[in-house]
Queue: 2 jobs
Job 1
Amino acid sequence: MASAQDTDSDGTDQVLVEEYGFTRILALNRPRQLNALSFPMIMRLLKLFIAYEGDPKVKLLIMKGNGRAFCAGGDVAAVAHSITEGHWTFGANFFRNEFTLNYIIATYSKPQVSILATIVMGGGAGVSIHGRFRVATEKTVFAMPETALGLFPDIGASYFLSRLPGFFGEYVGLTGVRLDGPEMLACGLATHFVPSMKLASLEEALTKVDTSDPNVICAIIDQLSQQVPLKESSAYKRLDLIDKCFSKRTVEEILSALEQEAENGATEWITAAIQSLKKASPISLKISLRSIREGRLQGLDQCLIREYRMCCHVLRKEVSKDFFEGCRAILVDKDRNPKVDSLFKFLIF
C-alpha cells in the first residue's frame, strides 16, 4: 500500500490515497469540516482522476470519506469570505474546477464506486452521483440544501434531479429534504444498499479486482447488497402527490398546491415541505425550479456550463445577496435567521 497526499493548512492530508493492486481508494479527509470540498481538495482529485485515466495499472476507483461524513458539500463559506474581501474570481475558479471534476467523473472510462456511508450533500453529490456505482447504507443522509443558503442545486444537479422519477427531483431540489439510504435506492440516486457492517468486506472484495468491467464490479457489490423497504412515513411512497404539487409551473403554484393538500389532512412530509419552502430564499427557489426544468432537456455538459454561468452571476451579486446572507446565517454566525432579498419574493419565471 502506498500514499499520495495534499496537505491542509494545518498539515493534515485532505485526500488520502491507498493502492491495492489495480484498485485505488480515495478518502476525503477533512473530518472536522465533514469533508467539505476545499479548493486544494478539488485540485488534488482532478489531478488523480486525470492521471488514473491513462494508467493501465489502475482499473477501479473507490471514493469514501473519513469520519462521520462522506462529504457535506463544497466549502462555500470560504468562497463567500473571499468575495467579501473583493475577490469574486476565486469563487469562479473554485466552481469551474469543481464542475470540471464532476464532468470527468461522469464520463470516466473506469468504474468508480462511491461508498456513501453517512452524510452526502451538495458538492459531495457531485463527486459521487455522477459515478458508476453509489452505495448507500442505513446511516446515509442525502440532501441538496442550496436553496436555504441562497444558492441553487449545482454540480450538475439540474441534470440528475430532473431525471428522477416524476417530479421527485423538484421536491428534493427545492425543499432540501433529507433522504435516507432506502429512499436513495428507490429513486435511483443510489445503485446499491449495503449494511454498514458489510462495508469493510465490500472494500476488501473490491481491492482484489483486476478488471474495469462494470458487470464484474456490479456482481461483487450485488453479493453484499440487499433490497430494503421504505419507511411508512417516506414521502417517496406518495409520489402521486409529489407529482401533483411539484409539477406546477411556478413556486407560488407549488406552495399553493401543497397548502391545499395540507388542508385535506397534512402528513408530516407535506408540512415539512411547506415550512422549508417558506424559509428558503425566494429567488433561489425560482432559479432552482427553472434550472431543473431546463435540465430535463439538456445533456450534463450543457447543465454544467449553464450552472457555472449562473454561479458567476451569484458571485458578482448580480442576482441578489441571499447567498452571502445565507452563508452568514447558517455557516458562519449560525443564527439561522437569514434576511432574504424581498425584492425578488414575488418574481415569477
Job 2
Amino acid sequence: MATELEELVGFLSSPSPPVKKAAVEIVRDLTGSEDGSLSLSKYASTVLPSLSQLLKEKKEVSEPAAEALINLSLNSNLAAKMVEMGMIKTAMEVLYKPDSSIARLLVMLLVNLTQLDSGIVSLLQIEDDKMQGLFVTKLVRSFCRSSDETRDDPFDHVGSILVNISKKEAGRKIKGSQEHSATVAFEAENQLQNLLLISEFLWPALLLPVAGKKIYSEQETSKMPLELGSALSIEREPWDDPEFRVEALESIYLIIVQEAGLRAFWSVNGPRILQDGYEDEEDPKVMEAYERVGSLLVHGSGTEEPSSSSETPK
C-alpha cells in the first residue's frame, strides 16, 4: 500500500490543476527542511522528473516547482541526478520561453547545478560540437544586456555560473600541470581549451563586476568582444557584493596563470580594465585580489602584451 509521501509525489502528475498546485506547494515546503528533503530523496526517480515537467506550467505551479528543485539541488547526489536527467537543458528551454515568469529561480538552479563537473559539462555542451557554447552565449548576453537596466535583474546570478565554470575548469588545468602523468596534463590542457573556446562570453561576466565606473570610448572597445565592449560603453550600476568581486578576480587569476589564458586576457584589454577598476575600488580585500592578479601580469609579461606564434583563442 502506498505511503502518504508516495501519494503526494503521485499527485504532482495529477490531471487536476488544483490538486497538482496543492501537491507541489506541499513538496516545496518539505524541501525547506533537511528531513523533508531526505524523505523526498527516496523518491527521486519520480519526484525530480515530475518537478521538471511542472517548470513548464503556469507560474502558480512552476514557481513552487522551481523553488523545490533549488532546495533539492543543494544535495550533491540529487543535483547529479538532475544533471543526468537533462535538467539543465530543460531549465534553459523554459528560461528563454517568451512568457517565462521564473527566470530568476531558473538561474539560481543553474548556479547550484554548475557546482558539479557534470553540470558544467552539460551547460557548456562540450559533447555536442554543433551546439557547444550556445547556452553560455545566451546567458552572458542576457547578463550583459540587462545588468545596467535594473537592480532587480533576473539574470544577476549568471556571474556566479560563469565563476563556477572558470574556477573549476582553470583550476583543473593548474592541478594537471602539477602532475607528472602525461595523460592528466593532456586532459587538463583540453579543459582549459574548452574554457577559452567560450572566453568571448566568459570575459564579460568576469570583468564587468571589477571594471569600475569608467565609460569606455568606441576606440577603446573596438578590440573587445561585442558583449563586453557594449556593456563598458554605457553607464552601469556597480556590483555591491565585494565577495563576488573577489571571486571574479580569483577566477581571472586561475585563467591567466596559464600562458594561453594570459594571451586571451590581453586580447580583450583585460589589464587596462582591471587597472581602471582598481582605481575605483575601496574594499581592502577586493583591492588585495586586484593586486594579486596585477602581480601575475607584471611577473608574467612585464608591461607588454605577451607575444606568441599562435593565434589568440576567441
